[in-house]
Each structure stands twice: as structure tokens, then as C-alpha cells.
Amino acid sequence: MQVGLKIWRYDSATGERALKEYELDAPEEATLLDCLDIVKDRRDGSLAYRKSCRMMICGACGMRMDGAAVLACKVRMHDIANAGHVPVISAMGNLPIVKDLVVDMEPFWQKFKAMKPWLQPGYDQPPVDEEHVISQERMNVIHKESLCINCGCCVSEC
User: Fold this and answer.
1) What's the pLDDT tens digit per position in 8-39?
2) Helices and strands of the chain, counted as H and E runs
């Protein structure tokens, strides 16, 4: 399938930003991350972005597509390409851009640590010498937050 991408490129050494357009041939099942790999491998080896697991587990490939934070490995390009839409890809917001689609995650990690999103002593005291079991009722309170993969997309959006 034919895929078009507009990618915001950024050079931190010069501070210059440029919107570059790429046309590529990609497999029908391609994700945005697959398409970025094709651009890097076949069109422009200088394109910078993060990736790791390719399975929506690690959060490394967080970026923006048409102004909304996404995981590049999660976005399937088939319907987008077939609609003739050429999405604009950019680095996540609210974080300093290092190069192209790579951001400095340190501000995210500072916010993460300040929030302390983990169980702390005193949350639920276990009986002495027994296994520390958290009740389902207590678990329901933190379940949604426990699914966080630390991608930083929430910081990008706020």
C-alpha cells in the first residue's frame, strides 16, 4: 500500500524545524512504527525516533500523530492510507525535543517520581507474619494506574 507521512524534523544543534514529506510502499498490515522504519532504512537514515518492543508494552515509541499522542507501534496505517490521509508526525509535546521525534524524558520521570505511583508502607497493613494480600476492593482503586507503561503520552497531552 502507498503511505504518505509528513514528519516534523528537528535539529537541536541549530534549532531548525522542517516538515518533510515522505511517500513509501508499506505492507498492508504496517503500523506507523513500521512506516518510520521504512523511511529510516530506505529514504533518510538520519531520522531519529525511539522504539523497542513493537508490541504496546514498553512505551518507547510515543509520539504525536495529527496533534494527538500515540504509540507508533499501535497505529495501523491501512485505513489512514486508504483514505488518502497524510498524517503529520511530530515529537511528543511538553517535553524538550532532542532530535526529530526523540524527546528528553527526564521531565516526565521527575513528575512520575513526585507523584509516587506505587504502594507505600501504611497503604494496607498485613497481619504480622502473614502474606501481604491486597483486597480486590483496594486493588480496584489503583487498577487503572497499574496498567501504565510509562510512555509519557499523558504528559504530552496535558
Assistant:
1) 999 988 999 999 999 999 999 999 999 999 99
2) 5, 7
